[in-house]
Amino acid sequence: MSDDAPIIELRNVSKFFGPFQALAGINLSVVAGERVVVCGPSGSGKSTMIRCINRLEEHDQGSITVDGISLGEDTKDIRAVRQEVGMVFQQFNLFPHLTVLENLTIGPIRVRKMEKARAESLARNYLERVHIPEQAGKYPAQLSGGQQQRVAIARSLCMEPRILLFDEPTSALDPEMINEVLDVMVELAGTGMTMIVVTHEMGFARKVADRMVFMEAGRIVEVAPPSVFFTNPESDRARMFLDQILEH
Amino acid sequence: MSATAENAVETSPRRRTSLRKMIGSRPVSVAIYLAVMWVIVATALKGAEAMGYNWQWYRIPRYFYEATEGGIVLGEIPWGLVGTLALSGTAFLLAVAIGLIVALLRLSDLIVGRWVARGFLELVRNTPLLVLLYVFYYVFGPIFGLNRYTASVGCLAVFHGALISEIFRAGINAVPRGQWEAANSIGMTGWQIYRYIVLPQSIRFMLPPMTGEVVNMIKSSAIVSVIAVAELTTVGRNIISDTYMSFEIWFTIAAVYMVVTLIISTGATVLERRYAVRD
Fold first, then answer.
1. Closest chain B residue to A106 measured between Cα atoms?
2. A103-106 long-range contacts, Cβ below 8 Å, gap at least 24?
């Protein structure tokens, strides 16, 4: 596959929750290595859109292609896509009955069928990358929120995915812990990982985004490089949104 | 006048709490408990006396054990208890298997599976256990060649399997949705998610009601005495038909059931503590 062929392609994707239309004809292509930051008011469909990319939500219309696989009913295809697409959640969703190390190795061992020893050395390697190698033997509940979220990032990385999705990764964190997570994400961005990040952290967006995507009411209203988006957004809605969140 | 009334209003709550404290204290609680028990036992004894009941407690021990030349020989009641435990144990293992399958069907994406599970649950749950036993013994017995014992095990397993399926369902549903999403997003299969993520976490939620089911199983196993399967209650009935000591024997049998179920409840409390430590 050539470099500029999209690794993720959403074509005319719509999604309904009962009568409520969460996504209304979304078109978006992301190429390998690109960092896309998605922002917009709450309820605009940002989370729903990225959750459709690894099919935690099923889209109702349109097509989604990830790494050459079209997402449909086929569970084998879905699992194949999920192995290539890591996801970091707002609420961390670590497995509370497993230690940090076990949280990290369960995917490689059970899904990738890796030997335990290899999986553990892989896991320790990624714990090092998120700066908490000393927490391997603890249970998630014994860690701070920031540490838990970094474990969650390491858990995704252990599957060695080609794409990482972040669903408001810092929204559930106390303010003093936000930066330790964002730092890890900035470092990740430096490794060439394809990332789609739903976040309100505009400082982070300015630093790492190749493109900003602004959504409202289930539609993509504006797509622009951050230099343009933050200084001179095209749409009034984006301007209003930025005024509101950048006020302080 | 009004001042004293205010005073009374002011002090009475304090007095009430101190009274409550006194009633709640251990010696007073024990005393009240003993008084209540004494009233019940005394009434029962008086009633028995009035009807001229001839108590023969001294004849009871030999139904537990007898010292013979060859050593101590277990009597009928311990063997009945063994029968009860074997019957309930086998039926409980089967019931857990049935319960798990029904719960997974109920929670599956298969519409047919959900309906089958739902139908099974409602059918079994709304049939009296005694009727279900008759169905197993008098209907399924001849059809499928079940003897007394297998019919009893089957009946108890199916009846409690239905109840246990609800325990599994509640326990599985108590695991947050985010756990499924996290496991799904690393590409685990549905079976792997149940096996490694969801079921281990739901044990904590399921343990208390599951203990209740073990105790219920042991108690409801008594019903198979109506088709004369060898177990504790059947033993009791047999001894009474030989000796006419109905009061002593039924008190004794009840006490044996109580000892066994209390032991199980205590053991379960210990287990629960161990699983609760995690978070």
1. B196
2. A103/A140, A103/A151, A103/A155, A104/A151, A104/A154, A104/A155, A104/A158, A105/A158, A106/B186, A106/B196, A106/B197
Q: Which of B185, B198, B279 to mutate to test the interface with A (most CBs of A within 10 A)?
A: B185
Contact between B88 and B221 (Cβ < 8 Å): yes
Nearest CB neighbour to A107, from listed B176, B178, B186: B186
B146 and B31: one domain?
Answer: no
Could you give the maximum distance between any two Cα atoms of chain B, in Å?
Answer: 86
Residue B276's pLDDT is what? Answer: 65
Q: Select the residue of A80, A97, A159 nearest B201 (Cβ to Cβ).
A: A97
Q: Which domain holds residue B30?
A: 3-53
- Percentage of chain A beyond pLDDT 70 is 98
Chunk chain B into consecutive blocks of 10 residues (it has 279) and report each block's average pLDDT, rounded to whole numbers.
49 69 82 91 85 82 82 85 93 95 90 93 93 93 91 94 94 93 94 93 88 90 88 89 87 90 87 67
Residue B106 one-letter amino acid: R
Q: Whole-model pTM?
A: 0.79
State pLDDT tens for residues A1-39. Answer: 445 678 999 999 999 999 999 999 999 999 999 999 999
Whether residues B100 and B8 share a domain: the answer is no
Which amino acid does the sequence have at A123?
A
B28 and B160 housed in the same domain = no
Interatomic CA distance for residues B164 and A156, integer angstroms: 36
